[in-house]
Specification:
Shape of chain A: globular
Mean pLDDT of chain B: 89
CATH architecture of chain B: Orthogonal Bundle
Largest sheet of chain A: 6 strands, mixed
Distance between the termini of chain A: 44 Å
Low-confidence stretches of chain B: 1-15
Number of helices of chain B: 13
Strand content of chain A: 25-35%
Structural class of chain B: mainly alpha
Strand content of chain B: under 5%
CATH topology of one domain in chain A: Rossmann fold
CATH architecture of one domain in chain A: 3-Layer(aba) Sandwich
Number of strands of chain B: 4
Number of strands of chain A: 22
Helix content of chain A: 25-40%
Number of helices of chain A: 19
Mean pLDDT of chain A: 86
Structural class of chain A: alpha/beta
CATH superfamily of one domain in chain A: P-loop containing nucleotide triphosphate hydrolases
CATH topology of chain B: ABC transporter involved in vitamin B12 uptake, BtuC
Oligomer: heterodimer
Low-confidence stretches of chain A: 1-17
Chain lengths: 510, 322
């Protein structure tokens, strides 16, 4: 049945002329509260083209994918499928049209076989029983046909992530897909696997499938795509025919932005060296050396997955280093636990509010005081007054918009939640503050408050490590900027000594 | 997402917590009133004292169980620990150890079992369900092995009288609930580690990154649970005057039920000390009332099951709205 689908598709593709775009967006827009995730965008996808979409982290690429696959609903604008206006309000509707997405993380069942995954939800049934042998045989035929040298009878979990990605692609390919979105598909692939994937993409294109290809790797964009669209800060800034553009133009389009004047930068004389990492290696990063002085911000820029978070988690004792050393105020230290790092004077506001930063179903005051319960405990008990005073003072200092310290954190907006993630460390007396993506999903007003807070910490003699995937942020704030790529610290620049283009090129690796 | 609506939501949530506690007490009182009117024997001194004794032991178990459930864990072993500890206590007393020694050693056994659970969960990485299930069956086995399946009679009047006597008009057993309940309340709501228990149950990673010793907190929760169970073992041994490894069969489920009826969330981070206490006495009243009304004892189990579904369902509704 599925094979007939493939052939039917090819026939259909031949009949319908490529004149009408398969999918057209008119004024497509998405807002999350005050955040404008995607500003009105007009874009049309031609039948059978490979259309690349590039942009920095947070430029709106994932918002666009979610809109196209019906995962989220648009705020305004129109979508036309083969010239007809469509709602595209649910994932089911998108799949009915033949719109599928292959995600960076494989969303399949690791405990089922490859064949079972390929036919999941569309099993071959005879007399109410699964025809497993038949399905395995057909799955193997499809895999062989695609040129993947992968067995269909093994468990999906036994394959590498890259191979799983290929299976996910094959699964999408046999499902009557007419519009297939790839989100950073090569992030975990080896060269051979990537080559297999590109071959598959080529075959899908021949069958008239429209491909949307999202990648940070510009060389892939030039190798594969017919056209390329550039997103920047939620705005679709342009579409180019790939053969008529070059890397320099793409990069300048990706970063050419009018700088919002919200960055608050004060300069302080560099004080003593607080922390020094010497050839530090660990899971996800390799041979990183840097030092942080009092009164200074050290910025870490890179793409997501470049090893920055892993590096700071190692400084904070969450993950153990595998090589190199750490000096704290000139003395060699071996940080084995978070508590030890905190006692030295290190504070870390982690990347993910929900997963790492907050106890979301507990009150605001509880979250703010969690790191300091050990300080304010007297005779084994937490004095009610100290608990209350500190929480109230923090809420007032940070201007957290909440009904009070007893309100649950889940009732707060993203920006206010982020203030708590940061604020809970301010009472702790730390000397080195590590902020991992402190302004993600935060409105402009709160961002400005956070930047002023950084300056205040520096004035008090603290040092800061600032991780951000948003280049202007680290560029404007960091006294020393390190660029990470694939786990390595590949470049360092003093304040404003390199251009945005140079830094982004280093991070992408063109 | 305006501030006004948020404020309103929050106010309702915190008042709803009090409402929930009051509703439980209201339910308990309503049942008592109905039973007083429909039966002659409910509102008699003997019956009320008996009810308090019945409820007390489950109440103490439920408090210990609640610590564990707040960390998103579960302790299935408490019933078995109670049975095992009756054997320990009886054995010590029949071998001429003093009552003080017996109490200390039995509680120490409870601590050791709890530490073992902590070890299994933290060091060996076993799911709490599995490690405590394993202890449940093994402890019954060890108890039977030690006694050769026999029952040890306790011949020590000072010890056995304790559970039968009263103090200032209330059964001693009920005083024990207060003895456990007040420190438990202070610990859970006013001490650092009490808060860590909530933090671990809410978000283990956030707690760890905030400097909370997650491992120690887990050890603590299971140790408290097993120690409460060992304490109940002592009380039960005194009440029935024997040590028998098969005693307290199914009490772990009654303890979990009491805790859940009392508002503890099996998803962690939500719970109190007073809730499970009231929950335990609601269960005891149901059983007592069903006996007095001559309801088939098999029905009691069914009623308990339905009540759990009902109360937890309404609690979920309340949370979803909030």
């Amino acid at each position: 049945m599925i094979e007939t689908n493939l052939h039917g598709q090819m026939a259909e593709a031949a009949i319908t002329a490529a004149s009408v775009p398969i999918l057209e967006l008119r004024g497509l827009e998405k807002r999350y509260g005050a955040t404008h995730a995607l500003k009105p965008a007009n874009l049309s996808f031609a039948r059978g083209e490979i259309h690349a979409i590039v942009g920095e982290n947070g430029a709106g690429k994932s918002t666009l994918i979610k809109l196209l696959t019906g995962v989220i609903t648009r705020t305004s604008g129109e979508v036309f499928w083969e010239g007809q206006p469509v709602g595209l309000a649910t994932p089911h509707e998108a799949i009915e049209f033949g719109i599928n997405a292959v995600h960076q993380e494989v969303v399949l069942c690791r405990h089922l076989t490859v064949a079972a995954n390929m036919f999941l939800g569309d099993e071959d049934v005879g007399f109410g029983l699964l025809r497993k042998g038949e399905m395995t045989r057909r799955a193997q035929a499809i895999l062989d046909d695609l040129g993947f040298q992968l067995p269909a009878h093994v468990l999906l979990g036994d394959l590498t992530i890259g191979q799983q990605q290929l299976i996910a692609t094959a699964r999408a390919a046999i499902r009557g897909t007419r519009f297939l979105i790839f989100d950073e598909p090569t992030a975990y692939l080896t060269r051979t696997e990537a080559a297999q994937l590109f071959a598959l993409i080529g075959r899908l294109k021949e069958r008239g499938v429209t491909i949307v290809y999202i990648s940070h790797r510009l060389e892939e964009v030039f190798e594969l795509s017919d056209r390329v669209s550039i997103l920047r800060d939620g705005t679709l800034v342009g579409t180019r025919v790939t053969s008529e553009t070059n890397e320099t133009e793409l990069i300048s389009l990706m970063i050419n932005r009018s700088l919002e004047q919200i960055y608050h930068k004060e300069f302080f004389p560099a004080g003593e060296v607080l922390l020094e990492a010497k050839n530090l290696s660990g899971p996800g990063f390799h041979d990183v050396s840097l030092s942080v002085r009092a009164g200074q911000i050290v910025g870490l820029y890179g793409l997501i997955g470049a090893g920055r978070s892993e590096f700071v988690m190692s400084l904070f004792g969450r993950q153990h280093k595998t090589g190199g050393g750490i000096l704290w105020q000139g003395k060699e230290v071996d940080i084995r636990s978070e508590r030890q790092a905190m006692d030295l004077g290190i504070a870390l506001a982690p990347e993910s509010r929900r997963d790492q930063g907050l106890c979301i179903n507990l009150p605001v005051g509880f979250n703010l005081n969690l790191p300091i319960f050990s300080h304010i405990t007297m005779a084994g008990l937490v004095p009610f007054s100290a608990d209350r005073q500190r929480a109230d003072r923090q809420i007032a200092d940070l201007q957290v918009k909440t009904s009070g310290r007893g309100a649950l954190v889940s009732s707060l907006s993203g920006g206010n939640q982020q203030k708590i993630v940061i604020g809970k460390w301010l009472n702790h007396g730390a000397r080195l503050f590590i902020f991992d993506e402190p302004t993600v999903g935060v409105d402009v007003g709160t961002k400005a408050e956070i930047y002023r807070l950084l300056a205040r910490l520096l004035a008090e003699g603290a040092g800061i490590i600032l991780i951000s995937s948003y280049l202007p942020e680290v560029y404007e704030l960091a006294d020393e900027l390190h660029v990470f790529r694939r786990g390595e610290d590949i470049a360092r620049h003093a304040y404003h000594t390199a251009s945005h283009e140079e830094i982004l090129s280093e991070a992408i690796g063109v | 997402m305006s501030t006004d609506t948020k404020t309103a939501t929050v106010v309702r949530k915190s008042s709803a917590n009090w409402m929930f506690g009051l509703t439980l007490i209201g339910l308990l009182l309503a049942m008592c009133i109905v039973l007083s009117l429909t039966t002659k024997s409910f509102l008699t001194e003997a019956n009320i004292m008996n009810l308090m004794r019945q409820g007390s032991m489950i109440a103490i178990l439920a408090v210990g169980e609640t610590f564990v459930i707040i960390t998103t864990g579960i302790d299935l072993s408490v019933g078995a620990v109670v049975g095992f500890c009756t054997v320990i206590a009886a054995w010590l007393l029949t071998h001429d150890f003093s009552i003080t020694t017996t109490i200390i050693v039995t509680l120490a056994v409870g601590v050791a079992i709890g530490m073992f659970h902590g070890f299994g969960i933290v060091q060996m990485g076993l799911p709490p369900f599995i490690i405590t299930l394993a202890t449940l069956t093994s402890l019954r086995g060890i108890g039977l092995l030690v006694t050769n399946g026999a029952t040890i009679n306790i011949v020590n009047d000072t010890f056995t009288e304790f559970s039968r006597n009263d103090f200032v008009g209330l059964p001693n057993l009920f005083w024990m609930v207060i003895l456990v309940g007040i420190p438990a309340y202070i610990f859970l709501h006013h001490s650092r580690y009490g808060r860590y228990i909530f933090a671990v149950g809410s978000n283990m990673e956030a707690a760890r990154l905030s400097g909370v010793n997650v491992k120690l907190t887990v050890y603590l929760a299971y140790t408290l649970s097993s120690t409460c169970a060992a304490f109940v073992g002592l009380l039960l041994a005194a009440r029935i005057g024997v040590g028998n490894a098969m005693q307290a069969d199914g009490w772990e489920l009654q303890a979990i039920a009491s805790s859940v009826i009392g508002g503890t969330s099996l998803f962690g981070a939500i719970g109190s000390v007073h809730g499970p206490l009231i929950g335990a006495f609601i269960l005891a009243t149901i059983n007592n009332g069903a006996n007095l009304l001559n309801v088939n004892s098999f029905w009691q189990r069914i009623i308990t099951g339905l009540l759990i579904i009902l109360i937890v369902y309404f609690d979920q509704l309340r949370r979803r709205r909030g």
